[in-house]
Design goal:
This protein is mostly helical and 83 residues long. It has helices at 2-22, 28-50, 55-81. The N and C termini lie far apart (34 Å).
Length: 83
């Protein structure tokens, strides 16, 4: 859970920055709303998807996903920070 929380904490600002960069100013609020709705829809659906997996598969998959998202978010964050 800690890794997943860390991954989400790093990924959400990057996600928001990408949405803002790719939309017109008029559409940004709508695009961010849809993005957050999809994130929460994923959180709603994920227990049903992962319930069929064994506990070892779930732990490994969640840990790998959190670490991968953390690396991607951190690399993107560093790219944005450098001039």
């Amino acid at each position: 859970m800690v890794f997943a929380g860390f991954g989400v904490a790093l990924a959400m600002p990057v996600f928001n920055e990408r949405v803002i960069a790719q939309t017109q100013p008029v559409d940004r609020d709508h695009a961010l709303s849809i993005g957050y709705a999809m994130v929460f829809a994923g959180q709603l659906v994920s227990p049903f998807i992962f319930s069929g997996l064994s506990i070892a598969q779930r732990i490994w998959g969640m840990t790998f996903a959190a670490l991968a998202l953390s690396v991607i978010a951190l690399s993107r964050r560093l790219q944005v920070a450098t001039p």
